[in-house]
Input
Amino acid sequence: MTSPTPAKPRRTRLSAQDRRASILDAAIKVFAERGYQRGKVSEVAARVGVTEPVVFQNFGSKAALFAAVVDLAATRICAELADTVATGIPVTTLVAQALSPAHLDQMHAQGSLGVLFADSVAPAAEPAVAQAGQAAVRRIAHALADTLRHGQTTGDIRADADPDAVAWLLLSLISARPLRLAAMPQDTRDHLDTAIATMAAGLLTPHTAQPPTQHPPT
Output
């Protein structure tokens, strides 16, 4: 007597929301690794285990998919920033860490979220991609400004600093890392970038009032 053939496990059908989330999760990896131009929707579909038409049914176009990816990346960065602040780390320490050479190298490395923002705000970016990139960067700047405001309430950040202006200054320093790598002398660039991070944090630190100088009576 032959044994009955075991039934194959039935594939669980994902909900529309879960399917969309799985596509986004795969797309954020593909575009971070390859960039917008070289990243292929077919590879996104293959990683999820669906066909290309399924991806297009959910997002409409490659540009719309990338726009959703950039929005998700901004959400993750803002959430990570909020979680870090919640640990009680001084905001000036957070600034110094964000501008450190090791963190900047990580932000600009292939496969990182930083690649997504560089692609989305490039001059040749498609309008839908550029608009999504601009909105995402603004969200990050706003979250960073809120972090600086929090630092002002705790006395960690100078009260006279403009949080919005400082946020854009910090983002500018982060995004300009490739330029510095290309132009700075290789044997001193890490030293200079570390000095920039230290200086930025120092400029934001409240200055302790010095007691007036005592002069001997004449």
